[in-house]
Design a protein that fits this description.
Elements (H helix, E strand, L loop, with lengths): L6 E2 H8 L3 H9 L14 E2 L1 H15 L4 H12 L3 H4 L3 E4 L4 E4 L2 H8 L6 E4 H13 L8
Helix pairs in contact: 1-2, 1-3, 3-4, 3-7
Length: 139
Amino acid sequence: MSGTLGYRGPTAARVAGITYRQLDYWARTGLVSPSLDHPDRRLYSVRDIVILTVVKRLLDTGVSLIQIRTVVELLKDRSLPDFASITLISDGESVHDVTSPDQMSDLLKDGRGLFGIGLGGVVQDVQQALRHLPGPAGH
């Protein structure tokens, strides 16, 4: 990805609302790793930071780490522009990626309590936060 700009770990952690220690642990365990290769530092793309933020929000709502790993795998196959059309819906036990009203309707039929995270909003939040923090590092 020559020419791609990335953000250093402290900036990624701050925007995602996690500690640098959490960021480091998640990278070492493969939960969320920086996607930009650089010989002497880890650089996180905007997409990586959005995924970090989603992981944090899911953890805060009590979603299990097993389900979070499933979500991360699902998001790894999607581009940042694709995120705008995805809403993650969870009942606390499972997480679904919803991209249409019909899918949402099917999930609501059984009357379970659900919560959702609109990824388009997360992307906007991350981009807004990055405007106010140290700029990207060259790749």
